[in-house]
Amino acid sequence: MSIEYVIVSERVGKPGTRFDPPDGVNVAALVENGFITVKKSDKKAEATSGD
Amino acid sequence: MATSVFLSNLTTLTVNSVSLVDQASSVTIDNVAEQLEKTSFGLTSRIFTAGLFNNTITMTLYNSYATSETYATLNALVGTTTTVVATVTDGAVTKTFTITGCYLETLPVVNGSLGTLSTVDITFTGGVLVAT
Questions:
Q1: Global pTM?
Q2: CATH number, domain at B69?
């Protein structure tokens, strides 16, 4: 299951929208400094799938 | 004679997907093919051929330690590779230069003098340059 990211800072894009990292982008640096966050998993979906 | 005067021609500048166009006052992207000499006896002029590409991107940015500003964008990139994108508009023509995998070796963390705005000069090296 791939990790999904959400934009926090306007410098990256529209806050609240999904962030798809372009090639070569250092995602860890963006997360570390609060530009994006890791999208929280959908607990309901996880329960259904049994993960 | 064709000329490009830089007023607001640089329409986008992103470093690691973070827009820094409003913090930049100077940007230079050099497409560099290292020269390898292949001069041999009997020739009277030096002859070169292309080696590896070794692009460089230099930029001057106003420094800020605030959230989502210059320092926050760059501090975690030192010693790593990233992607830099610059878009230049010249009349009806728009060119986008994308450098993927360029390396940031040095970030000046303090650079200032009395009565001046603090700026940082940084250089990315290497990576693959694509112009579209």
A1: 0.86
A2: 2.40.30
